[in-house]
Amino acid sequence: RRQRGQQASAPLRPRSSKPLLGRRLGFSLGMALDEDERVDWCQYVQWIVFGLGSWLAINGVYAELPFMAESLPEGYSIAATLGVAIQMGNLGPLVYTCLHRRYGSKISRVATLAVFFIGITCCLLLSFLWDKTAKLPNGKRASVPLIALTAGLAVVDCTSSVVFWPFAGSFPAIYVTALATGEMLSGTVPGLLSLVQAANKGGICASGGEGLFAPSVFFVVLAVTMLSSGIAYRSLSRIEQERTQRQMIDVLDVDVPTPSYSKIGDSTLYGEPRISQGTVQDETVNSSFSAPRTLEVQVTTGADGDDDDEFT
């Protein structure tokens, strides 16, 4: 009964002024957004586009494999060779770690730009060389350009995992979820593009073969997508630099008051400077910052046995 009475007498809490979409978004992301926090949705979309460039290339190669296998000398067994080449991409984070220990955070921006440059270059080269072969010493033909460029894309994608997230750490936590969403879509976008490519007049082309457009067009689309991710990174990097400059200006504009000293004549005040033969020893400084006061120093001079001369 007491609990019911307390519940009945408890005042009703006012409903939050935050829009319903914002409350649902904050709940779905597992975050408690403050009332004063504002989400820049344009910047949020830029983070999603930026995250697309993480694993887009490797997912795109495997999504396009059914359309390339029939034109390659290895056939569908090329998937096993590409799997080994992709594992070579783990060398990228190892090299980045060594460079980061030597050069510090200066290498982070260079590594991020290198990720996009190498990724775009490899995708453009794949659009021309995906079906080219080279003769091995044993006399067989192999898709050496495809394997080598796939290894380069693997280095790019593996390194993106160690350079994208530290960059996101300097922004509010709400934008970290946007980066995660972009990385999730890096596998969805190539899959949807492959489904569109497989659609023909007779329905879905499930057995491979030619699609609505050639693999060369597919890799060009991947290169354009990575280019847009690089542009989004440049925009976010500029936002970070402007915010850092504003913070530095705010720090320099702060007025720091000077501490005040107590008068020597009042021996009961806390923080009294002590006088000892021409030296002033300030053991404690009054913690309150008040108006400036006059500091009187009494200096005593004279030899032993002579009359002391006092100067104030």
Can you describe what's shown?
The chain is mostly helical. 57% of the residues lie in helices and 6% in strands. It is built from ten helices and eight strands. The strands form four sheets. A two-stranded antiparallel ribbon has the order 1-2. A hairpin with a 2-residue loop joins strand 5 (274-276) and strand 6. It is globular. The termini are far apart.
| Total strands | 8
Strand residue percentage: 5-15%
Structural class: mainly alpha
Overall mean pLDDT score?
75
**Which range best describes the helical content: under 10%, 10-25%, 25-40%, 40-55%, 55-70% or over 70%?**
55-70%
Q: Biggest sheet: strands side by side, in what order?
A: 1-2
Shape: globular
Summed up, the helix count is 10
Task: Give the secondary structure arrangement, pairings included.
Blueprint: H1 2-9, H2 20-28, H3 41-52, H4 56-68, H5 78-87, H6 91-103, H7 106-129, E1 134-135, E2 141-142, H8 144-168, H9 174-198, E3 199-200, E4 203-204, H10 215-252, E5 274-276, E6 279-281, E7 299-301, E8 309-311
Antiparallel strand pairs: 1-2, 3-4, 5-6, 7-8
Summarize the structure.
The protein has 312 residues and is mainly alpha-helical. Helix content is 57%, strand content 6%.
Task: Give me some keywords for this one.
two-stranded antiparallel sheet, 10 helices, mainly alpha, 312 residues
